[in-house]
């Protein structure tokens, strides 16, 4: 029987984050907490960096719920609603929730890099790259 009461905490230093994860053009994902890095079973957590004056490719995160915390910059989150693009403009300290399978993209119209912390309800960083926000592909 596994002794969960005495399992050790895991410490992941910022300089130890791994870029060995699915990527989307225009952004860099760094993995911190995952099944691969610490053996987590229900959560994935990491950082995403979007360079100045850049947009990511359109994508979704499969069945995973995604919570985003804006650390720096002013990233814009874009999704489709009723045949039109909707833009959520953010600033440091803001949070964004992305439901499962919702196509979206991140944009950084600013002059500084945008950095966000991401937590997902999956042990792995699920990323399904898409040709458009207006697609029915669920990966």
Shape: globular
Distance between the termini: 37 Å
Average residue-wise pLDDT: 86
**Percentage of residues in strands:** 35-45%
The total count of helices amounts to 1
Structural class: mainly beta
Read across the widest sheet, the strand sequence of neighbours is 1-2-10-5-8
Q: SSE order in H/E notation?
A: EHEEEEEEEEEE
CA radius of gyration: 16 Å
Low-confidence stretches: none
Question: How many β-strands, per DSSP?
Answer: 11
- What profile does the largest beta sheet have? 5 strands, antiparallel
Percent helix, as a range, is under 10%
Short description:
With 139 residues, the protein is mostly beta strands. It has one helix spanning 35-38; strands spanning 27-33, 44-50, 54-55, 59-60, 66-72, 76-81, 84-89, 95-98, 104-108, 114-120, 128-129. A hairpin with a 2-residue loop joins strand 6 and strand 7.
What does this structure look like?
This protein has 139 residues and is mostly beta strands. It has 1 helix and 11 strands; from the N terminus they run βαββββββββββ. A 5-stranded antiparallel beta sheet has the order 1-2-10-5-8. Strand 6 and strand 7 (84-89) form a beta hairpin. The radius of gyration is 16 Å and the shape is globular. The termini are far apart. The model has no long low-confidence stretch (mean pLDDT 86).
